Amino acid sequence: MLIRLPLLAVFCFLGCYFTSVLLYPGGSQVSLTSIGFDWVNNYWCDLMSEYAYNDMPNPGRLPALLGMLFLCVGVGALFYLFPNYYQLSKTWSTIIRYMGIVAMGLAFFIFTPIHDPMLIASCLLSIPPLIGIFVGLKKNKKTILFYFGLFCIALMGLNNVMYYAKIGIEGLPWVQKITFAIVLCWFISINFSFFKVKPIE
């Protein structure tokens, strides 16, 4: 059952995401008076705000927070499970499992007023576990997943450059969504790869 947890969590996240999108009252960084969720100009974090840009209470907040919880649990579970299916040293296994789980725990709190510190801490703590995953993929000759992952890292880097350097910031909401979708596909692909090998004793 645990092997299916990342995949199940992602589907639950998507269900919560689209529910919160439907409930979002309106407003974005471009137009405070727009109606509903703007796929081009609204961020994922907008859905977790107590009030929308138009100052109306946001009924989509609860499903968004629930979705974020599902996502963090799912990715954390993937980090925990990875060393069970990919041959790694004990050190890398420990780093992937426990630093990955802590990083996802911090990521959940990006909805709070300390959004930026939690985002930075989560990203920094995610680096060693992700390196460990790449080591595992390379060592076990999972070439497609390895290069797919590098592409995901490049996209995540682009997001951070746009956000912190304020370069092309107006395009970040849709770049964020594209990155989200592609990275989730990578994690799902890794989860599916677990079903093709025997667990390591």
Write a brief caption for the model.
The protein has six helices and no strands.
List keywords for this structure.
about 200 residues, mainly alpha, Rhopdopsin 7-helix transmembrane proteins, 6 helices, about 0% strand
Structure, explained:
The chain has helices spanning 5-23, 61-85, 90-107, 115-139, 143-165, 172-194. With 201 residues, the chain is an all-alpha fold. The protein has a single domain (2-194), classed as Rhopdopsin 7-helix transmembrane proteins (Up-down Bundle). Helix 3 (90-107) runs antiparallel to helix 4 (115-139). The longest helix is centred in the middle third of the chain and has 25 residues, at 61-85. The radius of gyration is 18 Å and the shape is elongated.
Write the layout of secondary structure elements.
Layout: H1 5-23, H2 61-85, H3 90-107, H4 115-139, H5 143-165, H6 172-194
Helix pairs in contact: 1-2, 2-3, 2-6, 3-4, 5-6
> At the first level of CATH, what is the class?
Mainly Alpha
User: What is the number of independent domains?
Assistant: 1
Structural class by SSE content: mainly alpha
For the termini, the CA-CA separation is 17 Å
Helix content: 55-70%
The Cα radius of gyration reads 18 Å
* Shape label: elongated
What is the helix/strand order?
A: HHHHHH
Instruction: Report strand %.
Output: under 5%
CATH topology descriptor:
Rhopdopsin 7-helix transmembrane proteins
Oligomer: single chain
CATH architecture: Up-down Bundle
* Weakly predicted, low-confidence segments: none
The biggest beta sheet is recorded as: none
What count of helical segments does DSSP give? 6
What is the typical, i.e. mean, pLDDT? 93
